[in-house]
Amino acid sequence: MQPYQDILTSKNSGSGFDPEQVRALFPILKTTVHGKKLVYLDNAATTQKPESVITALDDYYRRLNSNIHRGVHALSEMATEAYEGVREKARQFINAGSNKEIIFLRGTTEGINLVAGSYGRSNVREGDEILITGLEHHSNIVPWQMLCNQTGAVLKVAPIDDKGEVILSEFERLIGPKTRLVAIAHVSNALGTVNPVKKMVALAHAHGVPVLVDGAQAVPHFRVDVRDLDCDFYALSAHKMYGPTGIGVLYGKQSILEAMPPYQGGGDMIRSVTFEKTLFNDLPHKFEAGTPNIADTIGFGAAFDFLNGLDWNAVSQHEYELLAYATEVLGAIPGLRIVGTAREKAGVLSFVMDDVHPHDIGTILDQEGIAVRTGHHCAQPVMQRFGIPATVRASFALYNTKAEIDELVRGINRVKEVFH
Amino acid sequence: MSELRSLYQEIILDHNKKPRNFGKMAGANRTLEGYNPLCGDHYTLYIKIEDDKIVDIAFEGSGCAISKASASVMTTLVKGKTIEEVQKMFEVFHKLVTGELTDLSFESLGKLAAFAGVSEFPARVKCASLAWHTMKNALDAKTEAVSTE
Lengths: 420, 149
Hints:
The structure holds two protein chains of two kinds.
Chain A: H1 2-12, H2 19-23, E1 32-33, E2 36-37, E3 39-40, H3 51-64, H4 74-94, E4 102-105, H5 108-123, E5 129-133, H6 142-151, E6 154-158, H7 168-174, E7 179-185, H8 197-205, E8 211-214, H9 226-229, E9 233-237, E10 248-252, H10 254-259, E11 270-273, E12 278-280, H11 294-308, H12 312-331, E13 336-339, E14 348-353, H13 358-367, E15 370-371, E16 373-375, H14 380-386, E17 391-395, H15 402-418
Parallel strand pairs in A: 3-15, 5-6, 5-7, 7-8, 8-9
Antiparallel strand pairs in A: 1-2, 4-10, 9-10, 11-12, 13-14, 14-17, 16-17
Helix pairs in contact in A: 3-11, 4-11, 5-6, 12-15, 13-15
Chain B: H1 2-7, H2 10-17, E1 30-36, E2 41-50, E3 53-62, H3 65-78, H4 83-97, H5 106-109, H6 125-139, E4 146-147
Parallel strand pairs in B: 1-4
Antiparallel strand pairs in B: 1-2, 2-3
């Protein structure tokens, strides 16, 4: 897998960013769909994988496969080293203070469920409040509703305005003496809004309330520093940042994680077990019961290498220009309305069209080889807020190009032709 | 492109733009909701049955072109038919959109032939079937809203 790394490093060390060169690292981008060149604009659902990630998965099963943390044999030691090496890469990537603060699990959803199940069940009582915002994904709503149902706590929602921005004065007003936890998206998956997370964390901390950040849609687009944000928990998924499915990270501040009870019981999370008493393992293993997803973690490591090889100022500039260009050219199409017009956005352009349902638009675009998401994007309350059943969502990754946005515009014109 | 045209036939585009029997209907003795939670399609069906015959039918709601046109075409086809005839029509339609029908002649299918293209688009079968499933449940005197999920 190293050669790709070399290509990236040589191409991108201070020399900006060329999406065409990066595209060549993603085998699937050469695919055709319905006889047309694939234009993949569903990156907020999942990103494609570079060759290096695919190779790492293959390589693990061919050369390293064995169980970790327990074996004394060579393969087990190598696999353990590789697995724990990725923990260090994850720590560096989000600038956590310690590897003990990096918990591997299936993804953002499981990370949020861990916090709701462990931190929530031991700190939230009847009459307490959990505060979320009006732009959350279902994964940052439902676990808190379940916790509220179990404990008698109340779920509060900070509303969003017509642009799709959280109304900060309302958010601040809703943090009170009963608030036990604030849970907010860093970037909205349905609208692309970037929340002012650092400011929101400070507002919550002023009331002594810890904050969980759902970072699934943020980490693919800009560098995140959890210590700078000062958030208490940060959850992310590998598959949205060019890594494999089924693996993600929950970051938690060590002092808080230490005080939390285990989320699941089983092997690897214990120090000693008798039928009378079990002593739990140290962080982070306390939260990693059972044989973990070793292969995908190692694939995730290759994704970190890929991301670390990029010039992030140039990537951010490229993605910013893509979104600005898409907003300009789609916004100029008569009868098309962009949903979500926050001042700060990342990666996502949601829209609706007069007289044509998003589902029909999605089918016609698919016939043109263009993959977009249509529907409520697991954010039904956001759709309800805007009074629409669904949107078409084009979401961008670093390998997308302006030429692909031109294809999207051509596809939308095709929709208009079909529907006269 | 030809595949697209086979999905979005003129009949479908026409019924989507100008749905027939559209709106709330007074005097219905069967009323049932149908929805597709995935894409938000949501319709209410009003049916008036007398002596085992559908004497009047209407629908209201919103959704994609396929679901709306299917509901509209369905209302024009079943009005005046006996429940038994409509049940048979449901079976034909179901087989048609799932690609299980061998006789695709216009003579045997009539207006339903417009939906033959749906079988090429698996993701859209639920859209086309929503109104039909809702009607079948209404005829079976079921009262719980129909969901395609």
